[in-house]
Design goal:
- It is an enzyme of class 1 (oxidoreductase).
- The protein has a seven-stranded mixed β-sheet, with no helix packed on it. Strands 1-4-9-8-6 form a five-stranded mixed β-sheet. A five-stranded mixed β-sheet has the order 13-21-20-15-18, with no helix packed on it.
- The model is unreliable at about 1-25 and about 380-410 (pLDDT under 50).
- It is built from six helices and 34 strands.
- About 10% of the residues lie in helices and about 35% in strands.
Length: about 525
Amino acid sequence: MQRRDFLKYSATLGVLSALPLWSRPLFAAERPALPIPPLLSADAQGRIALTVQSGETLFGTNKAATWGYNGALLGPALQLRQGQKVTIDIRNTLAEETTVHWHGVEVPGDVDGGPQGIIKAGGSRSVTFTPTQQAATCWFHPHQHGKTGRQVAMGLAGLVLIEDDAIRQLRLPTQWGIDDVPVIVQDKRFTAQGQIDYQLDVMSAAVGWFGDTLLTNGAINPQHAAPRGWLRLRLLNGCNARSLNFSTSDKRPLYVVASDGGLLSEPVKVSELPMLMGERFEVLVDTRDGKPFDIVTLPVQQMGMTVAPFDKPHPVLHIQPLQIAASGTLPDSLAPVPGLPALTGLTQRTLQLSMDPMLDMMGMQALQKKYGDSAMAGMMMGNGQMGHGQMMNMDHGKMMDMDHGQMNHGAQGFDFHNANRINGKAFDMNTPAFAAKKGEYERWVISGEGDMMLHPFHIHGTQFRILSENGKPPAAHRAGWKDTVNVYGARSEVLVRFQHDAPKEHAYMAHCHLLEHEDTGMMLGFTV
């Protein structure tokens, strides 16, 4: 922040303490202030230090063991510059292995941080790369095969902000934590003792791990005091398995200015913004009327995700506008997004996503037994949604009995850890599925046909363009640069191109970003 702006804010508020404490006296006592992750840039030697560590975090009245980067929960926002080389020194102080994957950042395979990039317990790793892509909001998280879901659930996630010259000229809101605000949304479930209750079992392997408590930047129902004007929200769906649908409590519109890979060509006005797991969108909201409102997530049609309290609109973040005027603007045009090249003659690959029928059966029976019919909303049969009147009969006389997520009658040996597949195969770290040629466009068809589950499909090492999403043209705000596409019972097509090498020992990953599907086999490696 410029010194004159700091003085202006401080004088108006009568607060001389360091940011972000400046806004806390304005808050209602029952709501915590929105935690703002520190903004971390490279030092004079071009280095950033990250420590993967354990700690404790207070959720409501309970203190839980959590993990974070440079802190007890979540991590800093790393600010990188296009064209400037950076070295990130990672130290793992956990008692188990982890990796750090740069989700959405286009880097070579040897520094991508996929499941091969293991950092042993007590070990360290340094990665050096030069961001070449346009300005974007990306993120970093573990990618330890079989344990990604648990490590993210324990709190490991942080933002990566790539800056370039073009975005600085747009006069978007840029005051970090004031009118340029990160909003990392996750759900969690806790034990009776207040600890994070993570389990990878047949139910979570089928539908994903989900909770009943929503966190924003690690806080329950926080609020943020923002200057009056245009407010920029950098939204990240950091949930393991829950899709979100953002809106506002008073129906004021959201103006989408950027998707996973950066700026759109122009703002797109929406009343609702569905977001898959791992996706990012930047939106601007007009607060010039001075009226307080909530960012909310609306109910979604996804199996297991309509269980209370998510059967109704659920608050994500309370916004309290101040008397101070904001300085950022909403431009009419943003950044050029090139037209699509000719699609004839391109290499085409088909990736068929599938789940073992036994896992489907067992997982859904466990879900229905634990949560009832309401959890089955969003279940797909053929091309349509399954309503309560068509609910699958899952009584014990027609399906095998379940006990605490395990299958009885001698079937305990069912291997759900390899029950989710791509092209009929569960993930094999040692055998890449194919080789793509650097610099050449390819057309990938990702099919969820014959499957009733939502699959947010993510591809490493690229920002792609969506050609079709579940058989339809992409919505306007999804037509820019993306690294995750919606695959839900139909075919989605993307145009990909890889600009970096990824040799066999450092292959890129392509996988479902419902983390429990990824951990149980719905992933493949490929080389460039």
